[in-house]
Design a protein that fits this description.
This protein is of the alpha+beta class. It contains 1 helix and 13 strands. It has one helix at residues 2-47, and strands at residues 55-61, 68-74, 80-81, 87-88, 91-95, 104-107, 110-113, 117-123, 129-139, 146-154, 160-169, 175-183, 189-193.
Length: 212
């Protein structure tokens, strides 16, 4: 009996180091996993963008043109967003395009040409009232008129274009009202018109031909 008991203790002793090795290996993997989470999560958090938008207003003109055209938007709160004030109440200028001046971007250390000409202003809260959207011809580079498409897209609850029209700008310092539109508290768009109102603080050399 003593020999049997002694052999039994001996077998158990040989099994313990293997079980300990498995347990320690598991602990090691668990520790490495937790450490990797600590390094990964801050990067993911820094890379996230908490973007809230109800409407996106864009002005787009032909690519590869050096002409600088500005988008101005006035909200019912009295705020006006433009390159002069990119954050204005619930309005935000997301892209200020200056023609060819800022068409070059750096990707992986190399300069890449981004020829699209487009300004973007987002409306980040469904504030009821009237919005006014103006175009201003800041800098004319060529001799030909420049067609500019103005779009208003409603983002929530689904993406829907509520306005799209192309206008022609002819002269530097020209300003025109592309549209006025109103929204109610449910976000419905109504009352679209083009009653002109100057939003820029400049003295204009030329008003649009359709203004009496």
């Amino acid at each position: 009996m003593a020999s049997l008991y002694s052999r039994h203790r001996s077998d158990k002793g040989r099994a313990d180091p293997f079980i300990d090795l498995l347990f320690n290996t598991l602990l090691g993997f668990t520790f490495l996993f937790l450490v990797s989470l600590l390094f990964i999560n801050p990067k993911a958090k820094r890379g996230s963008v908490d973007m809230v938008a109800e409407y996106i207003i864009t002005a787009t003109w032909p690519k590869n043109l050096a002409d600088d055209i500005d988008l101005w938007v006035h909200a019912p709160t009295g705020h006006t967003a433009s390159y002069l004030q990119k954050e204005a109440g619930w309005l935000h200028l997301d892209r200020d395009d200056r023609g060819e001046l800022n068409d070059t971007i750096t990707v992986d250390g190399e300069e890449v040409l981004y020829p699209i000409n487009q300004e973007i202003i987002t409306v980040r809260y469904r504030q009821a009232g009237e919005y006014i959207v103006n175009l201003y011809y800041y800098d004319k580079a060529g001799s030909d008129p420049v067609p500019v498409e103005v779009k208003v897209d409603r983002v929530n609850p689904t993406l829907k274009t509520v306005f799209a029209q192309t206008f022609e700008l002819n002269a530097q310092d020209q300003e025109l009202t592309a549209l006025r539109f109103s929204i109610d508290r449910e976000g419905n768009v109504f009352g679209i018109n083009r009653l002109p109102l100057r939003l820029t603080p400049y003295k204009l050399d030329q008003m649009p031909s359709w203004v009496e």
